[in-house]
Amino acid sequence: MNRDGATLSLKVILGTTRQSRFGDKPAHWICEEASRLPNVEAELLDLRDYPMPFFDQPRSPAWGTGTYEDPTVQRWADRIAAGDAFIVVSPEYNHGYPAVLKNAVDHIYAEWAQKPVGFLSYGNTGGARAVEQLRLVAVEMQMWPIRSAIHLPVDMYLAVMNEPVPANPELFEPLKKGRVNVVERFFNELVWAARALKQARAGGVA
């Protein structure tokens, strides 16, 4: 875990804007879990608050300067630039992840680079196929996807589905039990990578 005293900024990205969505429940839960970590400041970024147009710019953000004409895109870029690590909360739709999430990723570039990302997913096969695709995109954006992910099992999904927001955190406790504490392992990997990469960026290594 992060024991060097430096505060890490962790952004939890809620990657669906669908009506009556399920994703806000695990997103609020994992953000609260992250906020309890030592020397970590967690913030939830809801894509509903960043209604960006479909990406149609003539030039790739990879060749940009970090300044964007659209004010919503600029707000988004500023929040991502301030992050040291990311948790993407995504459903699986039709063996993939939501278009609104891909659009949010594609609008910017340098703000993602040399930072770790972990995934929390749900849906068919626990969202495994969505996470597989997101890992490929993350690598292209120069992000560092960690090995572990959190996949919500169907029984947990059904138990949480009709909960208010935030949901009862006890419903997520089974993820911490059994042979492996999935949540602890996830955060150990993410925070270690965030600390290492933040030090590397500060030293001009990454």
Give the overall shape. globular
Q: Which segments are poorly predicted (pLDDT under 50) over 5 or more consecutive residues?
A: none
CATH class designation: Alpha Beta
The biggest beta sheet is recorded as:
6 strands, parallel
Q: Could you tell me how far the N terminus lies from the C terminus, measured between alpha carbons in angstroms?
A: 21 Å
Number of strands: 6
Number of separate domains: 1
Helicity range: 25-40%
Order of helices and strands: EHEHEHEHEEHH
**Into which percentage range does the β-strand content fall?**
15-25%
- CATH architecture, by name, is 3-Layer(aba) Sandwich
Written account of the structure:
Helices cover 35% and strands 16% of the residues. It has a single domain, classed as Flavodoxin domain (Rossmann fold), CATH 3.40.50.360. Strands 1, 2, 3, 4, 5 and 6 form a 6-stranded parallel beta sheet that branches. The chain is built from 6 helices and 6 strands, in the order E-H-E-H-E-H-E-H-E-E-H-H. It is of the alpha/beta class.
Write the layout of secondary structure elements.
Blueprint: E1 8-14, H1 24-35, E2 40-46, H2 71-81, E3 85-91, H3 99-106, E4 116-122, H4 128-140, E5 144-145, E6 150-151, H5 154-160, H6 182-202
Parallel strand pairs: 1-2, 1-3, 3-4, 4-5, 4-6
Which structural traits does this protein have?
single chain, 206 residues, alpha/beta, Rossmann fold, six-stranded parallel beta sheet, 6 helices, 16% strand, globular
Quick take:
35% of the residues lie in helices and 16% in strands. It has helices at residues 24-35, 71-81, 99-106, 128-140, 154-160, 182-202, and strands at residues 8-14, 40-46, 85-91, 116-122, 144-145, 150-151.
